[in-house]
Design goal:
Strand order of the largest sheet: 31-32-34-33-35-36-37-38
Shape: globular
Number of strands: 38
Low-confidence stretches: 1-23
Strand content: 25-35%
Oligomer: single chain
Structural class: alpha+beta
Mean pLDDT: 94
Number of helices: 11
Helix content: 10-25%
Length: 677
């Protein structure tokens, strides 16, 4: 597509009269490039290890949406071929046990349904006519069945009986009666009545059969018993499960709909995985301690007597995705110091790192990410990324060798000069705690020059950034900013002690000191312009940004994205209050008003002098728009230079569409340019 036509299309989508001219340059990531980025996810290695099927994600500039296609790659030659590549979306590719078929989910028929593709015959069968979303798609060991979960709708609650309306009359929509404690979800709105149940379906087509029932949600990862006659799953089947969200047990359901409880330990047991012979069941567990962070532990159950023991009990990281790769060994991932590591663990608890290059399945900001799959022979496919590339497909063999199979973004990025990512470690001025961070220098960086600094704070707060590709931060670097980000106290990937340093202190002078000390450490490097310091962050990062400008006036300007401003109002209006109140606060807001207020940036608004842009999605239910508006109106009442940017149609994932990501970035740059000295 000609460059000027592409620019016209992008600007039409964004109404972007304020967008700067997009010069044809090879220096740095440009706004238009975001539509061209691709990444791989959900790699599935075949049972014989010869092929990997994966989801190839790219953007549709005309529809302003992500497109998901399925591609095959040969593990020896690296040759790629499209399995399904068109304007429809495809997901959850899963190999049959004999490797002759691939089941997947697609909207190619007009609604999202299960399909099976026969590779040798190059034919595809549509298997279902379901009414709701499909998850957990899993083959039985004998290849005769597919299991999945979906929501089964129920009739909405009714209190008042309305009179019958006359024929042809046009009355207002019926009242919506809400009687559940958990009644809304960000990105979904009001939750329609119903519960997620487990189904089985003949793999050659037929009628889905519902195995579970009751007013509980059943789903997550599904594990078939070796004889293909029962399925193990995780569920919270406690009567008042809405109020006990840290609980969950493993259950087994057979084809006669008999449900047997397998675990009953306090906390949550989940992610079951059978060994090849079916004699051992691996699963994860997490405690029910009322803490904002809990490590996930690996457990092995002897299937014959149902006794379990915890593996690597003292390992101070959260284990993820245990998958058998031998009779006494599993593959897994864990996050460590800003990186996601692929490792193996024996049934005796010995952990061996394989690679720390799992990355790249988030494009916007440099969060830890990455996925893998493995076969019983120990061959593993995973998403491999770097600071300069989103996720590609790579494999690791039983001998531990790693080979990258795809290079999805070379056509776009190979001829561009991107910002370089560098690591920094420093001590917090609050208590000397060691903090790990990174900074991106602009393309063609000259250490003898002075550059404006942009501090960008991650969300969570129990998440982590790392040296990973970030379209947003690369854009800032392309415009001449040194971009600094850190994993402040409370961040994951450093163990429970570090994560728990923010318990009952979110936000506080303590995490502010971590950020502020990082700015000081960057100034000591000599290439930062002390008169041009800027701060931004989203979600928990937005809270930290709003809190910071109530404690300091050192920043020229701030961009506060989807923040919590008043915890007293937030926890009683957002979708996350049920889980957040008991884990992040000492009690109910009406019992601890002073504590909630102390954590709220609104308590410091009387100190703010920093020019501030606020930005939130209009449909955000995680940090509702009213939070942003409270801060905006308070700033206006104090006559502080401020602006409110509402993103129409956007939930908490404000950058979920390409144009929204571009809009977020370009508004931020425009605001900072206004206050650059």
């Amino acid at each position: 597509m000609p460059f000027e036509l592409k620019r016209t299309l992008i600007c039409t989508l964004l109404a972007c009269a304020a967008l700067p001219a997009l010069a044809q340059t090879e220096v740095g990531l440009q706004a238009k490039d975001i539509f061209e980025l691709e990444y791989a996810n959900d790699p599935q290695i075949s049972p014989d290890g010869t092929q990997v099927v994966y989801v190839r994600n790219n953007n549709d500039v005309m529809k302003d949406a992500k497109r998901q296609n399925l591609w095959l790659v040969d593990t020896k030659s690296g040759a790629q071929s499209p399995l399904f590549s068109d304007e429809n979306n495809y997901s959850q590719p899963r190999w049959s046990p004999d490797g002759s078929k691939i089941a997947f989910v697609s909207n190619v028929s007009g609604s999202t349904q299960i399909h099976v593709h026969y590779l040798a015959q190059n034919r595809t069968a549509l298997l279902t006519q379901l009414q709701s979303g499909i998850s957990g798609l899993t083959w039985s060991p004998d290849g005769k069945w597919l299991a999945f979960s979906q929501k089964v709708a129920e009739k909405p609650a009714v209190i008042a009986k309305m009179p019958e309306k006359p024929k042809g009359a046009k009355w207002s929509d019926s009242a919506i009666v809400i009687d559940k404690a958990y009644y809304q979800a960000d990105g979904r709105g009001l939750i329609k009545p119903g519960y997620r149940q487990i189904f089985v379906l003949p793999s050659e087509g037929g009628t889905p059969r519902q195995l579970t029932s009751g007013n509980y949600h059943h789903g997550g990862k599904l594990a078939w018993r070796a004889d293909a006659k029962a399925i193990v799953f995780s569920a919270n089947r406690i009567a008042d499960w809405e109020y006990k969200r840290l609980e969950g047990d493993l259950f087994e359901v057979d084809f006669n709909r008999n449900i047997t409880q397998l675990t009953s330990a306090p906390g949550r047991e989940y992610a079951p995985s059978f060994s090849k012979n079916g004699k051992q069941l691996a699963y994860l567990s997490a405690s029910n301690a009322l803490n904002p962070y809990r490590n996930s532990k690996l457990n092995i159950m002897d299937w014959q007597d149902k006794t379990s023991h915890m593996i690597a009990k003292d390992f101070d990281r959260s284990i993820q995705d245990p998958t058998w790769i031998g009779s006494d060994r599993l593959a897994m991932t864990y996050d460590d110091h800003g990186k996601r590591k692929l490792a193996s663990i024996t049934t005796k608890g010995k952990i061996t790192d394989i690679t720390d290059t799992l990355s790249g399945t988030t494009l916007g900001r440099p969060y830890l990410s990455g996925e893998f799959s493995a076969n019983f022979d120990g061959e593993i496919a995973f998403t491999q990324g770097s600071s300069e590339r989103p996720a590609d497909i790579a494999i690791t063999t039983r001998k531990g060798k790693v080979a990258q199979l795809t290079r999805l973004n070379e056509d776009l990025l190979a001829h561009k000069t991107l910002g370089k990512v560098h690591e920094i470690e420093y001590s917090s001025s609050f208590d000397g705690e060691k903090i790990q961070g990174w900074y991106i220098t602009p393309p063609n960086f000259d250490p003898n020059k002075k550059y404006p600094l942009l501090l960008e704070i991650h969300g969570g707060p129990h998440l982590a950034y790392g040296p990973h590709f970030s379209a947003e931060l690369q854009r800032y670097a392309a415009e001449g900013y040194v971009v600094f980000y850190d994993n402040h106290r409370g961040s994951s990937s450093y163990g429970e002690r570090f994560a728990m340093l923010l318990k009952y202190k979110y936000s506080s002078k303590e995490d502010f000191a971590d950020h502020n000390s990082g700015v000081d450490a960057m100034l000591e490097k000599g290439f930062i312009d002390k008169d041009n310091l800027f701060i931004a962050g989203g979600s928990a990062g937005g809270i930290a940004t709003a809190y910071a400008i109530g404690l300091t006036n050192r920043f020229n300007a701030a961009v506060v994205v989807k923040p919590v401003i008043n915890w007293l109002s937030k926890v009683l209006t957002a979708d996350s209050g049920l889980g957040q109140i008991p884990t992040q606060f000492p009690g109910m807001p009406w019992e601890h008003m002073e504590h909630y207020w102390q954590r709220s940036p609104l308590s410091l608004v009387g100190n703010v002098t920093t020019p501030t842009m606020l930005m939130t999605g209009e449909e955000d239910l995680r940090t509702p728009m009213a939070e942003t508006e409270q801060f905006y109106q308070a700033l206006k009442l104090r006559k502080i230079d401020s602006v409110l940017v509402k993103i129409p149609g956007a939930p908490h994932g404000i950058a979920g569409r390409p144009s929204r990501m571009i809009s977020k970035i370009e508004h931020t740059l425009a605001w900072f340019e206004k206050y650059k000295k």
